[in-house]
Amino acid sequence: MTNTTKEKILLLLFAGVALAFSRSSIQHYRIYKIVGREWQKIDQKELKQEIRNLYKSKLIKEKKNPDGSFTFTLSDKGTLKALTYHFNEIKIEKTIWDQKWRVVFFDVPEKHRWGRDALRKKLRELDFYELQKSVFVFPHECEDEIDFIIEYYGMRNYVRYGIFEYIDNDIYLKDYFKLK
């Protein structure tokens, strides 16, 4: 069995969790679209074998329903694995700029330095601009993605998200993000 089949199965199972966390119908549509496309790509024979393997590895839990069907859900271990796969694929859609700045700012204690450094690195990967040491700016809607990243790192208590209509040096930011 290929690891990609296992990853796809975990991602498909995790899609249910993603739907619960997403707030907009646009996000729901994107999730359904991706799930449908990925489901069609999975070989049915491989799927059955991989589900057996996932069950044995304790990544999923099996529940027999009264009607004779089975429900498979992610175990805690499986959720963590699915989060890891999904986390590496996060992208923020760049739409037409609505004249608002999304700002992520944080004050993470030294004992959680690893999380602070990882968060800073992830925001840079997503093309956020570092306005100050722990203040990052982005011009497009990204609240769901930021919530996911914050939860992934367990930094909810230390990170804030805001939407600003004005930043005094936004001429430089507009140039940086090519928003003229």
Describe the structure.
- This protein is α+β, with helices and mostly antiparallel strands and 180 residues long.
- The protein has 2 domains: 3-87, Arc Repressor Mutant, subunit A, CATH 1.10.10; 101-176, Alpha-Beta Plaits (2-Layer Sandwich).
- Helix content is 51%, strand content 17%.
- The strands form 2 sheets. Strands 4-5-3-6 form a 4-stranded antiparallel β-sheet, covered by helices on one side. A two-stranded antiparallel sheet has the order 1-2.
Mean pLDDT over the residues: 81
Q: Indicate the proportion of strand residues.
A: 15-25%
Q: What pattern of helices and strands is seen along the backbone?
A: HHHEEHEHEEHEH
Counted up, domains total 2
Instruction: Tell me the helix content.
Output: 40-55%
Q: Any idea of the CATH topology of the largest domain? A: Arc Repressor Mutant, subunit A
Largest sheet: 4 strands, antiparallel
State the separation between the terminal residues, measured CA to CA: 50 Å
Radius of gyration: 19 Å
Number of contiguous helices: 7
Q: What spatial form do the alpha-carbon principal axes imply? A: elongated
CATH architecture of the largest domain: Orthogonal Bundle
User: SS-based structural class?
Assistant: alpha+beta
List how many beta strands DSSP finds. Answer: 6
CATH class of the largest domain: Mainly Alpha
Weakly predicted, low-confidence segments: none
Strand line-up in the sheet with most strands: 4-5-3-6
